[in-house]
Specification:
With about 270 residues, the chain is mainly beta. Helices cover about 10% and strands about 35% of the residues. It has a single domain, classed as PK beta-barrel domain-like (M1 Pyruvate Kinase, Domain 3), CATH 2.40.33.20. The radius of gyration is 18 Å and the shape is globular.
């Protein structure tokens, strides 16, 4: 095997409720389903059974104004801790308290239920009218992988090199990691869209974790939405489409799980 240093973990992120803001971590356990507790919960629209997703902001305009954290550290093999959700007005609700569905329905102005399990489901995606996208100015359905609330893969990685390159290409845009909702941000001395070179490779993180890089992460309207102090900016997605085929970061499957920590070394294994 050939080993090559890639960089180190500079931040870790978990999103306990799909399409809500999440929590930054110092360490996390990774299993076959990704970071333990990531997308552990999701909202379902009671009118059509579809999973609520910020990929369709016309239907779900306020999801990025909600923030979710787990109430305890999740443990491998144990029941998932409840999620605590902060509403836009500061109200706190927990996934295990009575009346949560009603409170969330009022806040979102749609009848919803907070779920911790689903066998199979669909969600919706709005495609911006941007040249280079597969579809334009339309809403399409997509399948959620069975037994999960992920759009595609269990782990999403992003490098500081890619963010730096995007800033060079579109200086007026605020390219911050949180726009792209990664699980693992890798600080690397390399330049450019370095994740593209990892596809088909295996990365080791720390002493235990091994991830197989399965493909690019195609970006969508979510990257353009306002969140916190980040403004709405369609130029974010236009830049990614024009210069890297809409890809920002990569997806990964878990080859070997374990504990990952901020500061862990990242190595490429051939």
């Amino acid at each position: 095997m050939n080993h090559g240093a890639v960089g180190s973990v500079v931040s870790l992120w978990r999103y306990p409720v799909k399409s809500m803001m999440g929590e930054e971590l110092n360490a996390a356990d990774i299993g076959s389903g990704g970071l333990l507790g990531d997308r552990a919960y999701a909202l379902v629209d009671r009118s059509d059974g579809k999973i609520a997703s910020a990929k369709n902001p016309k239907k779900w305009p306020g999801l990025f104004s909600f923030r979710a954290v787990l109430t305890a550290v999740p443990k491998p093999g144990a029941s998932m801790p409840p999620a605590r959700i902060t509403l836009p007005d500061g109200t706190l609700v927990s996934s295990d308290q009575s009346g949560t569905n009603e409170i969330l329905s009022v806040a979102l102005q749609r009848e919803v239920a907070l779920l911790a399990d689903v066998r199979a489901a669909q969600a919706e995606e709005y495609w911006l009218d941007i040249e280079g996208l597969d579809k334009r100015d339309t809403v399409t359905d997509f399948e959620i992988p069975e037994g999960t609330f992920f759009d595609a893969a269990a782990v999403h990685l992003l490098t500081t090199a890619t963010l730096d390159r995007l800033r060079e290409l579109y200086p007026q845009g605020r390219f911050e990691a949180r726009r792209f909702r990664p699980n693992i941000v890798v600080e690397t001395p390399a330049a450019g869209f370095v994740e593209n070179e990892w596809i088909g490779k295996v990365l080791s993180i720390g002493d235990q974790v091994r991830l197989s890089i399965t493909g690019p992460c195609p970006r969508c309207v979510m990257t353009t939405l306002a969140q916190g102090d980040l403004p709405h900016d369609t130029g974010i997605l236009k830049t990614a489409v024009k210069h890297n085929g809409a890809g920002v970061g990569v997806y990964a499957a878990v080859v070997q799980g374990g504990r990952v920590r901020r500061g862990d070394h990242v190595m490429q294994v051939d």
